Amino acid sequence: MEAQANWVSGERLVRMEPYKPDFLQLNACCAENATGIRNDTLILQATWVSVLKGTLFFLITFGAVFGNSLVILSVYIKRKLRTITNCFVVSLATSDLLVGILILPLGTKLGVTGVWDMGTVLCDVWLFCDVMLCTASILNLCCISLDRFFAITNPLIYATKRSKRLALLMIGLAWVASVVVTCPLIFGSHEERCGQDVLCELTMNPGYVIYSSLGAFYIPLFVIVCVYARIFQAIRQRDNYWHRTVPHTCLASHVLYCAGSASRLAAAHHVTQGVPRGVPPPHWLPP
Predict the structure, then answer these.
(1) 21-271: CATH, from 1.20.140.10, 3.20.20.450, 1.10.10.10, 1.20.1070.10
(2) Mean pLDDT of 243-247
(3) For helices 164-186 and 120-153, angle between their N-to-C axes, nearest 10 degrees
């Protein structure tokens, strides 16, 4: 036992304290060292996770910017690529390019650090551009599917009505619709954030969540699935029809019939080049 003496009113008081064995002090030191090592390990793991996330986000951003820039540049340089179908492709590439330039860099910073320290104004602008550009990209896919649908189901009629003015009108409607879907973010459908320098995320308001989900995802998805299903059905029906009616070999008495059929098939093939990949082409299409 260890003794500790104090002087009170001229008298010596002795207070005895229990003796602490050395192994208890050793265990306490070991526990402190283990805690420090564990903290260092967690910090190292978090650092590596941040590095991997940052590298992955950088590769995605670089791929989006580089790939879509090549698409736009190729259409701009090559005059032969300036077709009506490629108008929709350029619009799609433009929306994806803007996502790579305006959205992904700030998203990478937020995803790696987990903190938004660039103010609420930039946060609101970033969220608005994020929703608008992603919606525009999806709606441009809808325009491409509709263009292919009309070109395949009514090739001869659509060929007479198809023009760059119609394509630009469809593209303009897609961009206007994307702005309409995003407008509630401008007019106050956002949450009051506490700690404005920490959080930057979309509102969880049920009304806006349902509205934006329908306009930006579910309705376009329904349209795309139905349109491509109808395209596949039309191609299968056309293929079966020509298997039954068009002979594989033309006799001399059918030369005029075969020649007329070939000209009609060539015209139809010229306007149905938007057949989606994965759908087997009819046997009568030229290689």
Answers:
(1) 1.20.1070.10
(2) 67
(3) 150
